[in-house]
Amino acid sequence: MEVRVAVVGAGSWGTTVASLAAQNTPTMLWSRRPDVAAAINESRENPRYLPGFTLHAALRASSSLAEVVEQADVLVMGVPTHGFRSTLEALAPHLRPWVPIVSLAKGFEQGTNLRMTEIANQVLDGHPAGVLTGPNLAKEILAGHAAAAVLAMTDETIAERLQKVFATNEFRVYTNTDVIGSEIAGALKNIIALAAGMAEGLGTGDNTRAAVITRGLNEITRLGVAMGGRPSTFAGLAGMGDLVATCASHQSRNRYVGEQLGRGRRLDEIVAEMHQVAEGVKAVPVVHELAELYGVDLPIVAEMHAVIVHGASAEAAYRGLLQRKVGREVDYA
Fold first, then answer.
1. What are phi and psi of 322, to 5 degrees?
2. Which of 164, 189, 282, 325 is catalytic?
3. Burial status of residue 63 (CB atoms within 10 A of its CB: 0-12, 13-18, 19 or more)
């Protein structure tokens, strides 16, 4: 029996995942903009977020949330973190019972500090919730380059069935039962990407950026383990893989924001010119609170908090990191 997929959110990644799924099974994509939905149906292109990239011919789009969701066997949530809860609440009356929910969002809810699967469990109790994450730059995948992701669900049977929904010859999907670790890795890597971009903007060398990425992975792992994630998750696609791609790629929104901060621009100016959300900016205050709650020292996060929340300069953050006392390289189990 075919699995019908509903992807909610027609940003670059939501659209890409919908196009991948459409290669395997009937897939519908929801866009809040009728013009985007019409363009996908008529020209197989998302002109707002992915101009020039051809989507799979079988993909259908609609601006009606009910039409997209009501017959779905799998619900994929591709909306940003700030709209995750309200969108789930809006579609809840149209979703059949027990339909699995797969989150694509990488971040936390402001105010509650909840992960996206925690929100899904609150709003749609009884629906298995997981996350599809990894080093996945949308334009590279649509261009046909090989990539890999991890689908994390606590129920391995569900994960293995959904694995076949998203995988293609060029897009390899692995499974993992560590939902907590996979979500935390995806959220925290955006903050480290801000720092790596900032180092680039300041004109530092490759050694500095490598140190930021490596010590950033250490911070991600320490907080992730404290919150219930498994250390091995952070060494895999959800952790190291996504971190490297986000810190190194010029397509990364978070890296771009950091780079512009390093060049002396104001955060509000940078964010105002962007068409999509840089989730790392929103994640910084949340992760800073979580670090205090769990008693985990996160030097890079602390310096990014000073920059993002308190307006400190990139130069001051760089000096602050250099002045910190060094200790053991690895201090988690």
1. -70, -25
2. 189
3. middle
The pair of structure tokens assigned to 60 is: 């259908």
Instruction: Return the DSSP state at 72.
Output: -
Return the structure tokens found at 51: 């101009």
Counting every residue written for the chain, the total comes to 333
The CB-side HSE value for 303 (13 A sphere, CA atoms) comes to 26
Q: What is the DSSP string of 154-196?
A: SSHHHHHHHHHHH--SSEEEEEES-HHHHHHHHHHHHHHHHHH
Query: Vertex 288, ends 134 and 245: CA angle to 5°?
Result: 20
CA–CA dist 198, 103 (Å, integer)? 28
- The type of residue at 209 is R
Could you give the domains of the chain?
Answer: 5-177 (3.40.50.720), 183-323 (1.10.1040.10)
The alpha carbon of 188 is separated from its chain's Cα centroid by a whole number of angstroms, namely 9
Fill in the DSSP letter of residue 46. Answer: B
* Residue carrying structure tokens 């929904």: 165
- Report pTM: 0.93
Is 164 assigned a catalytic role? no
Is residue 184 a contact partner of residue 227, using CB atoms and an 8 Å limit? Answer: yes
Q: What's the token pair of residue 246?
A: 């986000």
190-242, pLDDT tens digit by residue?
A: 999 999 999 999 999 999 999 999 999 999 999 999 999 999 999 999 999 99
Q: Which residues pair with 29 in a beta bridge?
A: 7, 61
Average of per-residue pLDDT across 39-55: 96
Q: How many CB atoms lie within 10 A of CB 328?
A: 5
* Nearest alpha carbon to residue 28 among 42, 47, 9: 9
